[in-house]
Write a structure and sequence with these properties.
- With 365 residues, the protein is an alpha/beta fold.
- It has 2 domains: 7-102 and 110-242, 3-Layer(aba) Sandwich (Aspartate Aminotransferase, domain 2), CATH 3.40.640.10; 245-364, Aspartate Aminotransferase, domain 1, CATH 3.90.1150.10.
- It is 42% helix and 15% strand.
- It has a 7-stranded mixed sheet with strand order 1-9-8-5-4-2-3, with helices on both faces. The protein has a 3-stranded antiparallel sheet with strand order 7-6-12, with no helix packed on it. It has a two-stranded antiparallel ribbon with strand order 10-11.
- The radius of gyration is 21 Å and the shape is globular.
- The mean pLDDT is 97.
- The protein binds pyridoxal-5'-phosphate.
Length: 365
């Protein structure tokens, strides 16, 4: 049995450190915004090269609070990709704004800067790129568009912790960025967790207030806020994993490159690295017209595989009405041919060979 991501193998490696940290936390009983959350925020900010990092309850909240803090609200248009997880658009809806879905680059699956420019209207307030599958979006182009049209740039970096472009970490380039620590993400907790980063003192202050019931001073509430704090126990785990994140991402890149090398002669499209930044392969996603046969053959051998994402957001029931006449040909084509293989820092070369052999068998038949 080969899972999409082997969380157990990762746990075994950090077991002692994590168990010591958790035992200490239980002894200390400082469970809410305790010393580990504070230390993790400092360590994450240093790693990401950003002034402020604020721990929140999950990645969806990170994006939601970032949008509020950047002043995005009712009736504002936010341009984003339809080829992403629903949470990107949920966050936009939570603040009463309108997600404007545009098409992607056929090779990287990231939002197309040309498509963004065509979608800008006087109501556009922000661009929300997703660094999909761990590959940085074209931030040089996006920054330029934001400057030219006076837009906010809010990054969905939920899949790209540790990915960089032009020497800067994804998430830390725009006005604000959100990360998810969902267990299967590149930096994953043992439950839910999230982070907002920003270089703005004002945005950071608002996020700190919003995540804690709109309060700076206990029992004094200035705005309606939320209960969205990063959990102290999760911060213990994240601190242990943050120390090793470069090693994990490097191992993911090794897996991806070996897959691509072994499949170079096969009639399918392996992931494209545009070379603009460092891809950290949250997913290893290919395109094939024989997706269903390949996936069936893998599943028959107890090898996990998955489609991210089978239904693009503009075709989801929840958005169907507001997207009636919207056609995004690249997104639609990719969603009907894409599939993802197991990838994680602990996938052995032997397993990679085994997986590729099965795919080769299907395509040669
Ligand atoms: C995982 C993910 C999120 C949401 O993160 P949660 O922590 O599950 O709330 C948002 N956007 C993208 C692209 C994601 O992959």
């Amino acid at each position: 049995m080969i899972p999409m991501v082997n969380l157990k193998a990762q746990y075994v490696e950090i077991k002692d450190e994590v168990e010591r940290g958790l035992a200490e936390t239980i002894e200390n009983c400082a469970f809410i915004l305790g010393p580990n959350v504070q230390a993790f925020e400092k360590e994450a900010a240093a790693y990401l090269g950003v002034k402020h990092a604020i721990g929140v309850a999950n990645g969806t909240d990170a994006l939601h609070l970032a949008l509020i803090a950047e002043g995005i609200g009712a009736g504002d248009e936010v341009i984003t990709s339809a080829f992403t997880f629903i949470a990107t658009a949920e966050a936009i809806k939570y603040v009463g704004a309108i997600p404007v879905f545009v098409d992607i680059d056929p090779r990287t699956f990231n939002i197309s800067p040309e498509a963004i420019e065509q979608a800008i209207t006087p109501r556009t307030k922000a661009i929300m790129p997703v660094h999909l599958f761990g590959q940085p979006a074209d931030m040089t182009e996006l920054l330029q568009l934001c400057e030219q049209y006076h837009l906010k740039l809010i990054e969905d970096a939920c899949q790209s912790f540790g990915a960089s472009i032009n020497g800067k970490q994804t998430g830390a380039i725009g006005h604000a960025g959100g990360y998810s620590f969902f267990p299967s993400k590149n930096l994953g907790a043992f439950g839910d967790g999230g982070l907002v980063v920003t270089n703005s003192d004002e945005t950071a202050a608002k996020i700190k207030q919003l995540r804690n019931h709109g309060s700076d001073v206990r029992y004094y509430h200035d705005v309606i806020g939320y209960n969205s704090r990063l959990d102290e126990m999760q911060a213990v785990i994240l601190r242990a994993k943050l120390k090793r994140i470069d090693q994990y991402n490097q191992a993911r890149r090794h897996v991806a490159h070996l897959y691509s090398e072994l499949m170079a002669d096969l009639p399918l499209i392996t992931p494209y690295e545009d070379g603009l930044g460092v891809h950290v392969y949250h997913q290893y996603t290919l395109l094939s017209d024989h997706r269903d046969e390949i996936m069936q053959a893998l599943q028959a051998q107890e090898i996990a595989c998955a489609v991210y994402y089978p239904v693009p957001l503009h075709q989801q029931k929840v958005f169907k009405e507001e997207c009636v006449n919207l056609s995004l040909p690249v997104t639609e084509h990719v969603s009907t041919t894409c599939f993802s293989l197991p990838i994680c820092p602990f996938l052995s070369d032997e397993d990679i060979h085994k997986i590729v052999d099965i795919i080769r068998g299907v395509l040669k038949a």
